[in-house]
Write a structure and sequence with these properties.
Blueprint lengths: L3 H6 L7 E2 L2 E2 L1 E2 L10 H13 L10 H21 L7 E4 L2 H16 L5 E5 L8 H10 L2 E5 L9 H6 L5 E7 L11 H10 L3 E5 L3 H4 L4 H4 L3 E5 L10 E5 L1 H4 L12 E4 L4 E3 L13 H17 L1 H20 L4 E4 L8 E6 L5 H10 L2 E2 L1 E3 L4 H7 L4 E5 L6 H18 L1
Parallel strand pairs: 3-15, 5-6, 5-7, 7-8, 8-9
Antiparallel strand pairs: 1-2, 4-10, 9-10, 11-12, 13-14, 14-17, 16-17
């Protein structure tokens, strides 16, 4: 049984008030709150288990190394990966995608080669490819979503041409909540000999993910959205692609031997993990994923689907509110503008006075904003601890906004 009241009690911050009102936290798409299990794991790591990893022979170093390296297996289980050595620790999805851009794409893409992207991508899955466009003459080929915000797999597949070398696409839009059939895209791309990268930042939070079934060459996640610490994350890289990659950063831990005239590198995944890592953040991520797996990703998805359906009914019932996108099977993410309001920031400011936390702006998705014909939206993004009464608080605050701006 999914007991949302008990789950909420696991998150200390949800008990606080903001501006004299109960906190209604609907900014999960930007960063999720942390359960006590994560807070305690981080505190314990600093209080009684901390040392640098890998290179020490003393008790604390061995303990920290064991705790840290165990997270690789936890991430593999969470993502359905067969081999934990295909998991590379990162500071988040942004670093993971840059690792692919610098380590895999830059050495092999030439002027005129194409990267297929959707217009829905987060900037983290756009800017690293612009680097290649600016520096190497790579062509970015864009696929636009349908009017309802959906992105049919066949549209992406049809964009793959003879010069396409990579398809980089989101699994779930951080603005619209659209879920993309990335498994179909990856299958078609693989048959054409084209590599695939999937931004799993949002999808991995809200639904079960099986990277073996999806079949992407690269699948990136970020810890701070997964109820874990900021500065943590990982990317799943197929071994065949790892063998094609050069290191992204150089330093300690990723070397086998260093001399005056030459250097040799250790085996993946550590080949791509230079320097002292985010030890405690990674341990905290492991605790977060254990927490989510204990709840069950299917249970989380079912709960959020109920919240999504309830919120959808309420939001679409406000005829002065414009909700962007309504793709079938979307996640519990809603972006909207309000008639009469000067800017999305005005809406979010009023909502904040009522204790309702939402995000306002372009959500690091400016090409999508341009496609939608807006400069910014407000976004309410729900998580595993949100409830129907919190949806009602959002609606009540929006009605206050309407009264103020009408």
């Amino acid at each position: 049984m999914y007991d949302v009241s008990a789950i909420r009690a696991d998150f200390p911050i949800l008990a606080r008030e903001v501006n004299g009102k109960p906190l209604t936290y609907l900014d999960n798409g930007a960063s999720a709150q942390k359960p006590r299990a994560v807070i305690e794991a981080v505190t314990r790591a600093y209080e009684s288990e901390y040392a640098n990893v890998h290179r020490g022979l003393h008790f604390l170093s061995n303990l920290a190394t064991d705790k840290y390296e165990a997270v690789r297996g936890t991430i593999a289980r969470f993502l359905g990966a067969k081999d934990e050595h295909e998991i590379v620790f990162t500071t988040g999805t942004t670093e993971g995608i840059n690792l692919v851009s610098y380590g895999w794409a830059a050495p092999r893409l030439e002027a005129g080669d194409e990267i297929v992207l959707s217009v829905m991508e987060h900037h983290a899955n756009i800017v690293p490819w612009h680097f290649l466009r600016e520096r190497q003459g790579v062509v970015l080929k864009w696929v636009e979503p349908e009017p309802d915000g959906s992105l049919p797999a066949e549209k992406v597949i049809e964009a793959i041409g003879p010069r396409t070398r990579l398809v980089a696409v989101t699994h779930m839009s951080n603005v619209l909540g659209t879920v993309v059939d990335v498994a179909a895209i990856c299958k078609a791309a693989r048959e054409k000999g084209v590599a695939t990268l999937v931004d799993g930042s949002q999808a991995a939070v809200h639904m079960p993910v099986d990277v073996e079934a999806i079949g992407a060459d690269f699948y990136a996640i970020t810890g701070h959205k997964l109820y874990g610490p900021s500065g943590s994350g990982a990317i799943h890289i197929r071994k065949s692609r790892m063998a094609e990659m050069r290191p992204f950063m150089g330093g300690g831990d990723m070397i086998r031997e260093v001399g005056r005239e030459a250097v040799s590198y250790t085996d993946p995944p550590m080949k791509f993990e230079a320097g002292t890592p985010g030890i405690v953040a990674t341990i905290g991520l492991g605790a977060a994923l254990d927490y989510m797996m204990t709840l069950g990703m299917e249970n989380i998805a079912a709960h959020e689907a109920r919240i999504r359906d309830y919120a959808r009914e309420k939001l679409f019932g406000l005829n002065w509110l414009t909700v962007q996108g309504d793709a079938p099977g979307k996640g519990a993410i809603f972006s909207f503008t309000l008639q009469g309001a000067g800017h999305a920031h005005d809406i979010s400011t009023v909502l904040d006075k009522r204790g309702v936390a939402v995000r306002a702006g372009h959500h690091c998705a400016q090409p999508l904003m341009e496609h939608l014909g807006v400069t910014a939206t407000c976004r309410a993004s729900f998580g595993l601890y949100n409830t129907e009464p919190e949806v009602d608080r959002l609606i009540s605050a929006l009605e206050l906004c309407h009264d103020l701006f009408a």
